[in-house]
Amino acid sequence: MDKVAPLSIIIPSQNFSYSLEKVLESIKKQSLVPKEIVVVDSSRSEENKGIVKKFEKFLNIKFIKVAHAYPGEARNLGVKNCTENTLLFIDSKTVLSEGYLSEIFSLFNKSNYKVIFGKTVYLADSVKQKIIKAATFGSLGHETTPGTIINKDTFIEVGGFLEGVRTAEDLEWRARVKSKRLRHLCPDQPFLTYSEIPNSYKEMLSRYFKYSFHTARVNVQENIKGLYLSLALILSALIIPRWNYIVGWDNENLYIPNVTKIYLFSLIVIFISTTYFNRALISKYFTDPVSFYLKLLIFIFISLGVYNWNFSIAGWIEEASLYIPHITKIYLSSIIFLSILYRGIYLPIKLKEDRQFLFPLRWIQISIIGLGLDLAKIPGYVAGGLIQPFLISRKKANLD
Fold first, then answer.
1. What is the mean pLDDT of the chain?
2. For residues 86 and 8, is the Cβ–Cβ distance under 8 A?
3. Contact, 59 vs 29, CB < 8 A?
4. Which string of DSSP letters, residue by residue, matches 343-354?
């Protein structure tokens, strides 16, 4: 039998029996196998239990059946039920490359790293999957929680994954690792593959909406002050530009000349200063709601400024030097054109997509899908941020 490592692999699973079988098969083929695998399954059917039974004669698998568990809850439960001190998180849809366990286990024990994150490359077979991949992940490897190796005491120090959220708990957990300044590493080369990209544009749009909804919930949950500031920005955008109308144009004490211009200028100054502050002094790995709403408000006010340019600045006098014919059409056309170029050409090339796949015309499809995904995130993020205060607060698991 292959060498056995004092290692517990934790796999949350829900449906996707075919993928789980591929993951267990990739573990079985490793030259160094784990001492135990803990599968926490919340599927409604018994298919995954049957898959696990097929591998029990090759691998030591502890199968835990739960009625319902999001990935964070399942990982926390897996940690509580494992016996080894060294933990490795794998997803039920991420397949290990050959020799991965031997290499990562050796690196972890020989180095001073407290955490080594996973790195995953996304694969596609059909043309639709390739278009979606080009618009999202590209051909680069991405830092992921699946593939992460860590000792149990370090995991307890960091704290468990957030529970009660469907997605983004892994992003929040990795951000927490980095905020604690633990020595960590993300490998240069991807050792895991993910091949379950949806083969439907509609499904991908729905997934992006759901992901952004839960991501906003996590961000708000972690930064309640950010929520209050975001709500204050929204209220200010509704009230301040209409201030003179509310107090009365003839009210000498409360009337503020050029209040909309002052407000817009202040927003821009705040945005620039906070952007610099975030990049210079705050971890850039995690985004809070304030930045999102601030960018959205600035974009809205710039758009309103362009729309009212000829009325406010040139007084609709076509001979005026500041009058710009068709300014709104030019503005909207420029945004659409630049967005299409960015989403269809620049970003896929940056993500190392094959140029032969992009050109001559497929980049247009990629840009449309990419813009659609971006638009799907906006209502999801707004809805998630606004609904979170009315939900029961979810906290990190107690792992002691």
1. 83
2. yes
3. no
4. IIIIHHHHTT--
Task: Give the start-end residues of each E strand in the chain.
Answer: 3-13, 32-41, 61-65, 86-89, 94-96, 115-122, 142-151, 184-185, 192-194
| Helix, strand and coil percent figures for the chain, each rounded to 5 | 55, 15, 30
Q: Is the pLDDT of residue 183 over 70?
A: yes
Decide: helix, strand or coil at residue 162: strand
- Kindly give the pairing relationship between strand 94-96 and strand 192-194: antiparallel
Which two three-digit tokens encode residue 18?
């075919």
pLDDT at 292: 62
What CA–CA distance (Å, rounded) separates 83 from 278? 40
Lowest mean pLDDT among 3-7, 196-200, 238-242, 292-296: 292-296
Tokens of 256: 């503020």
Residue whose token pair is 């709403």: 293
- 385 class by beta-carbon count within 10 Å (0-12 exposed, 13-18 middle, 19+ buried): buried
Rounded distance between C-alpha atoms, residue 281 and residue 304, angstroms? 33
pLDDT at 349 over 70: yes
Alpha carbons within 13 angstroms on the beta-carbon side of residue 9 total 31
Q: Please count the CA atoms within 13 angstroms of the CA of 223 that sit on its side-chain side.
A: 17
Predicted structure pTM score: 0.76
Higher pLDDT, 256 or 160: 160
Residue 34's CB is within 10 A of a number of other CB atoms, namely 26
